[in-house]
Structure formats: structure tokens, C-alpha cells
Automatic annotation (TrEMBL):
Cited PROSITE patterns: HTH_LUXR_1, HTH_LUXR_2, RESPONSE_REGULATORY
CDD domains xref list: LuxR_C_like, REC_NarL-like
Taxonomic source organism: Streptomyces xanthochromogenes
Keyword terms, alphabetized: DNA-binding, Phosphoprotein, Transcription, Transcription regulation
Protein name from the UniProt record: DNA-binding response regulator
Amino acid sequence: MPVTVLLVDDEPLVRAGLRAVLEAQPDIEVVGEAADGAAVIPLVRQLRPDVVAMDVRMPLLDGIEATRAVLRTVADPPKILVVTTFENDEYVYEALRAGADGFLLKRARPAEIVNAVRLVAEGDSLLFPAAVRALASSYGKGSARTALAEAALTEREAAVLRLMARGLSNAEIAGRLIVGTETVKTHVSAVLAKLGARDRTQAVIAAYESGFVAPS
């Protein structure tokens, strides 16, 4: 089955460019478009996309609030990929903290756009880990310190979280720890559950904001 994508951006040329790039791939299908975050929830419920590629700044409802609204009101919500002009942007970090799974630069090359959609859809690796580190260093608020302290991660779960923060995939973590991929998936699931994180992006942000992993 192809990865289905909903495009949300107030610039028609951006949507057209993303559509052209993504629909050139046999395993990706663009199922709809919207010009503002206010239209996202009904379209998500109607189209059930796997990924929403959403501009972070829009006139009526921006990508941050639209992300919060989708995750709050939609059962089994899609992955959310924030589309932005500048990567070192507090809006991007707030969108990730709100629950977005990653971000995509509007100036990205076609291969990077396709890879970002696939990676976010698969959900077993962190998109642009170095950029997330930089954002955490600039905008992290330390609000996750108590939550991570109370999570009581085991030694192995803590090791997995550190490797997740470095951007390693499940397969790469398995190779580093000399365990099976299914074992890593079990540990990742336990980390997410203990931290109350939707996915590994939110878990990694919590690790940075708590000081568990240094964003340097």
C-alpha cells in the first residue's frame, strides 16, 4: 500500500511542488490539499492520510495549533511533518513539542522530501537529529525534567533512549546493543509509554529538555 499524504500550505506553488515530487514516487500518493490548518481535521477524518505535510505558519490556524487539534480530536491520528522555511525556528520546535513527528525544509531537494515522508511514515528513526539537538539547545524549556525522572527507565531502556537521540534506527540500535530488532522495538515502546510520548521524536525532546541527553 502506498504512503498517503495530505498537503497543507497557504502557498499554492509550495503545494504544487510537493505534489509533483511526491507523486513521482510509486509508493507515495497525495490524497488531498488544504490552504490552512483550519481545514485539517475534517480532511484527516475524511481522507485518513498516513502523513500530513503541514506548513508551520498559516494565516488562520498555524501548524502548531493544527497539530495539537489533530492529536487531541482525531482517533488514530496521522504522522505530522511540519514544512518550514527556516530550520532554526522556535515555531518548528513548538510544533515538535506539540506532537509533530518531524520537519521538512521548503528548500529541500526532491530526494530529501521523499525520504522525509517515508521516514516519518515508518516511524522507526528520528528525522534530522542534529537539527533537533540544535533546536533543543536554543529553545528547550526544561519542562520534561520531572517526567523523565519519574519514568524509572531501566538501564537498557536508558541506553536505547540515548541511541534514539542520536538518530539511530531500530536496526542500528539492535546492531549497537547486539540484540534483535524486535527486542529494540519492545524497549522503544516501553520508553514511549513511561515518558507518555507519542513517538520517538517527543521522547527525544523530553530527553534533551530534562538534561538526560546533552544537546551539544
